[in-house]
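Slides due. Your pick:
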Amino acid sequence: MSTSIATNGFTRRAMNYSLATGVLMLVAKWIAFVMTGSSVIFSDAAESVVHIIAVWFAWYALGVVSRPPDEDHPYGHDKISFMSAGIEGGLICIAAIVIIVSAVNKLVVGVELQQLDIGMSITAGAALVNLILGLYLIRTGKQHSSLVVEANGRHVMTDVWTSAGAVAGLFIAQWSGYLWLDPVIAIVFGANIIREGGKLVAISVRGLMDHADPELRARTQKIIDTYCQVHGLEAHRMRLRASGNAVHVDYHLIFPDDMRMQEAHTLATHLEDAIRAEIGQSAEVFTHLESHTQPDGHI
């Protein structure tokens, strides 16, 4: 089994777990909301609705990412990963706005809460399940360089904090008798959800605009410089762009005028292999060969 097929299998399985768990958590949270009438539990349940939609799109995106390059998409389909992260972030922000509006309305018309013990127990159980799922998704996404899975895991973790905060807020409201704390805490959660959604949108924008990864670029440049020093070569015009799971690298390799083309090509191939090994991802590396006396020269 090839590495790409195995990776796709792991990430697909992770998203299947996320989708199935998300549906179960959605049902549990809406039951808790109906039982309690709590604004913070409503915020948790509303965020779960968005989560289901986002997971479905992420699940679809994984299928697109795994497609090989074709005539219409010669560089592959990896950039849909950034689209997935952006859509998920946007949906999170929309959910947060709904939560805040609902909480403000509760403050205006009054707060009524009931059966808080059962509601808090259900919400706490959902938070624990999502904590396990979120950590699993983030770890799987990082291990297999899948932005889709990692972004989904971070979304799940915002759900965990929302659920944990809902339980804490309801406990404080019940203990103190200040029921107005319920919608106030929901507003605070809504603001935090907007912040997390904004981070995903920012990641999406940077990816779609081919924002360079400074750390990855520095590692790649170091390999090229070291290799050139050992073999008496020079290089310039190195460019690097990350596109979802894939990384594209190209540069100009300058060799002595008296070096045979076959030798230059062999050296370039070995350098490309070294770059792919260092990046540790699905990488496309392109080398433009030129000699010192070529018009292209050093720029």
